[in-house]
């Protein structure tokens, strides 16, 4: 309360003005919220009492009040103030946006009150704001909002919204519009309007609405927030009518207290059946992907795996299972399974079978005949449609609708109840087998990492290990995807915490890392965590302006550019096609490499105000450069190291 | 008659129609020029999946959580016959290199380059790798 308002008249100065000279100001608390140390004053007149009573009984934090001594025509209690209060009520702490006139009222309502949430985060492209909200959620567990200009801004944001949808991550998207077309000015206001504003995003939204009143807006935000945060989570889109944003209101509608829904737990009868099947299995295997949302969930998964002594395959949608646990296992282990428990595995088909990238496109099973596949999957609770993010259908032997993370505690109890002593007594022997397999695999990986250790360009394994060496003395979070770095981090780092790895884009949309990395860094601002992004150069070039936001908002982000001077995945794809056609594969580099000229990413970063070193071409130079960059991040500023490296 | 048959076989071999090529029929690697082999290795894009030092994804063979690129092929490349068979008629995801694209001599030169790559250092001799955890965590829960 008592926030400063930059310009205009705020409720503090107004109330101070009507109070007795020298009297304290009034702080209007949200219902149920303690007032600040500022004390309410006694009214000195009936008129003053009426005004104070009106302020004190207001139902919102904005607590609309009547202003005096303001120019005629001043907008009092603009609707956008109430809209922002609604966002705050559902837990929105940050709004990312590049400015757009269709939400100018909302923007003013955010920035007018210094120090009050939500805080405005300035970005240079709507795709960055979307990915930022995506990364912020995965690092904090909290939703973030973005505001996009109608039509053109929504179009820019679309890919990042799709990534979040496919990654089952929430975000609140707002745009503006004059629904009453007679209110629109000629020109841009028409270009930046749609009849159905959410239409272009609807296939990747859990909810959208175009409210026609402030009360309707409050209901849309409350309903949308509940849907957005209920697993499987996803983006929502709300249109804030510009007239509602910018008009003044004598009275705001009542705003209710937001209560987030509980997540869906699987049917207890099905859970009991699953427990019996797991306990009876000779070789149970657990497969996870977007299966956990917190360290508690990770610990629950560890407990389930240790009860069964079952290997865990982490498909890396999140950090679900510690990489240094002896039950951490690679995907091929499913071949030995007689029972597979898949927990919110987005691509169940791809877990048990594959379609190879060749002309035949044959389906090949990864599992043996007779393997029982159990799936606890919240995917069963949301529809699919135009976008094919649900992947190919696989008929599980026991599909169970529910959220894995919420179901784990009851599944653990059920397994404990179902497990006979004879089965429990087998666990030490099973543990020994798994420990040996884990150690053998890590020794193999160490040998693999040593190949080309001193090579130029710098090997990817070395780049990844030099990065780990620089960050591991501190709290750290790996905030980019890892597959383009051969998952060296999962193979050689001790990734133990849910926050140590956030997964990748969700829908393989290139450009994700730009926004997601600063979103994660925003979530960690001030907590001492070094956020590290090993950022492919192709992805980097989709939105390099993210660095400006990192510098502007002082975000603790270390960007290590994996500079292989290519959109390298595509280089390999085109090369394969050329081989199929008996044509020269080397021509596959045309249009897929980023050379002539080579991009100097350090200079690019410096231009955005970010400390940067590079291009680093010699392996021996890399460690010291990373140490200097980490020191910069620890001082509260982003840093970048450009590493000229091997392709993969 | 015999001469004609050999000529026909040679033509087929040159076209890559036979099992890979003549080179594939022996498990003894022909001598090759490693320096030229490196140049061909780069031009033909072998480095794209296998790295400039043949390190690939750090694993020999498929799978193992090593990403979706090629396996280690050096040091100690696969046997010559296996190498040529994979180049001419690849399994898994790899471009096909017929003799129209990659001559037997160039293949031999690439192979010579791979053979010339020295053994990797012992990971224990590399401080950053020597510090990697080799004792896993975990327990048996009840």
Helices and strands, with pairings:
The complex is a heterodimer of chains A (648) and B (142).
Chain A: H1 11-18, H2 46-56, H3 79-89, E1 94-97, H4 104-111, E2 119-122, H5 126-140, E3 145-147, H6 152-166, E4 171-177, H7 188-191, E5 207-209, H8 214-228, E6 235-241, H9 242-246, H10 268-280, E7 284-288, H11 295-308, E8 312-314, E9 328-329, E10 339-343, H12 348-352, E11 353-355, E12 363-365, E13 372-377, E14 398-401, H13 404-418, H14 421-425, H15 427-450, H16 460-471, E15 476-478, H17 488-492, H18 512-523, E16 530-536, H19 537-540, H20 546-552, E17 557-563, H21 568-580, H22 601-607, E18 611-616, H23 619-634, E19 639-644
Parallel strand pairs in A: 1-2, 1-3, 3-4, 4-6, 5-6, 7-8, 7-10, 8-9, 10-13, 13-14, 15-16, 16-17, 17-19, 18-19
Antiparallel strand pairs in A: 11-12
Chain B: H1 2-15, H2 34-43, H3 47-50, H4 80-88, H5 104-116, H6 127-130
Helix pairs in contact in B: 2-5
């Amino acid at each position: 309360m008592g926030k400063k308002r930059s310009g205009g008249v705020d409720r503090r100065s107004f109330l101070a003005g009507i109070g007795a000279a020298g009297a304290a100001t009034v702080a209007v608390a949200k219902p149920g919220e303690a007032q600040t140390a500022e004390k309410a004053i006694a009214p000195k007149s009936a008129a003053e009492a009426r005004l104070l009573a009106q302020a004190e009984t207001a139902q919102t934090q904005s607590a609309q009040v009547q202003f005096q001594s303001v120019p005629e025509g001043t907008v009092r209690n603009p609707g956008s103030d109430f809209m922002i209060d609604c966002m705050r009520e559902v837990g929105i702490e940050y709004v990312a946006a590049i400015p757009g006139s269709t939400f100018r009222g909302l923007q003013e309502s955010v920035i007018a009150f210094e120090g009050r949430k939500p805080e405005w985060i300035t970005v240079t492209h709507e795709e960055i704001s979307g990915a930022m909200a995506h990364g912020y959620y995965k690092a904090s567990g909290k939703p973030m909002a973005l505001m996009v200009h109608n039509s053109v801004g929504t179009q820019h944001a679309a890919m990042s919204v799709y990534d979040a949808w496919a990654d089952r991550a929430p975000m609140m998207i707002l745009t503006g519009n004059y629904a009453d077309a007679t209110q629109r000015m000629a020109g841009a206001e028409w270009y930046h309007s749609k009849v159905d504003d959410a239409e272009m995003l609807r296939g990747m939204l859990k909810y959208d609405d175009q409210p026609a009143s402030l009360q309707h807006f409050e209901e849309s935000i409350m309903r949308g927030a509940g849907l957005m945060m209920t697993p499987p989570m996803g983006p929502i889109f709300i249109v804030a009518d510009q007239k509602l944003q910018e008009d003044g209101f004598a009275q705001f509608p009542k705003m209710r207290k937001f209560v987030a829904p509980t997540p869906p737990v699987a049917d207890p009868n099905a859970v009991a059946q699953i427990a019996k099947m797991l306990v009876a299995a000779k070789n149970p295997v657990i497969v996870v992907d977007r299966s956990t949302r917190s360290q508690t969930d990770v610990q629950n998964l560890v407990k389930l795996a240790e009860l069964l002594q079952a290997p865990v395959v982490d498909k890396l949608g999140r950090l679900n299972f510690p990489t240094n646990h002896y039950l951490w296992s690679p995907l091929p282990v499913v071949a030995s399974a007689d029972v597979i428990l898949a927990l919110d595995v987005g691509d169940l088909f791809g877990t048990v079978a594959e379609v190879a990238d060749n002309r035949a496109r044959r389906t090949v099973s990864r599992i043996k005949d007779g393997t029982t596949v159990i799936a606890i999957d919240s995917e069963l609770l949301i529809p699919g449609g135009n976008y094919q993010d649900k992947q190919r259908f696989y008929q599980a032997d026991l599909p169970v609708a529910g959220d894995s993370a919420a179901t784990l505690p009851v599944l653990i109890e059920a397994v404990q109840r179902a497990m006979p002593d004879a089965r429990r007594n087998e666990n030490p022997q099973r543990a020994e087998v798994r420990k040996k397999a884990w150690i053998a695999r890590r020794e193999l990986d160490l040998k693999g990492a040593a190949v080309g250790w001193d090579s130029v360009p710098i090997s990817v394994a070395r780049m990844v290990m030099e990065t780990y060496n620089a960050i591991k003395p501190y709290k750290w979070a790996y905030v980019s995807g890892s597959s383009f770095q051969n998952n060296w981090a999962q193979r050689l780092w001790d990734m133990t915490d849910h926050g140590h790895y956030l997964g990748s884009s969700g829908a393989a949309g290139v450009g994700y890392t730009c926004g997601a990395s600063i979103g994660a860094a925003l979530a960690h601002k001030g907590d001492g965590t070094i956020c590290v992004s090993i950022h492919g150069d192709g992805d980097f070039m989709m939105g390099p302006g993210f660095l400006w936001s990192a510098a502007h908002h002082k975000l603790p982000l270390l960007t290590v550019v994996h500079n292989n001077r290519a959109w390298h995945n595509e280089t390999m794809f085109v090369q394969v096609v050329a081989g199929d056609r008996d044509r020269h594969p080397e021509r596959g580099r045309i249009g897929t490499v980023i050379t002539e000229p080579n991009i100097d990413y350090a200079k690019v970063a410096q231009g955005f105000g970010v400390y940067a070193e590079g291009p680093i071409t010699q392996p021996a130079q890399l460690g010291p450069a990373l140490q200097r960059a980490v020191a910069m991040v620890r001082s509260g500023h982003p840093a970048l190291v450009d590493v000229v490296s091997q392709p993969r | 008659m015999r001469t004609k048959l050999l000529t026909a076989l040679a033509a087929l071999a040159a076209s890559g129609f036979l099992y890979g090529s003549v080179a594939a029929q022996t498990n003894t690697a022909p001598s090759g020029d490693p320096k030229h082999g490196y140049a061909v290795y780069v031009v033909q894009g072998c480095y794209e999946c296998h790295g400039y030092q043949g390190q690939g994804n750090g694993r020999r063979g498929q799978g193992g959580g090593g990403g979706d690129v090629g396996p280690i092929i050096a040091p100690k490349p696969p046997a010559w016959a296996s190498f040529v068979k994979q180049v001419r008629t690849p399994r898994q995801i790899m471009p096909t290199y017929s003799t129209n694209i990659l001559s037997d001599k160039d293949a031999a030169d690439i192979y010579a380059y791979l053979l010339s790559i020295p053994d990797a250092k012992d990971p224990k001799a590399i401080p950053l790798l020597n510090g990697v955890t080799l004792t896993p965590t975990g327990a048996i829960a009840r």
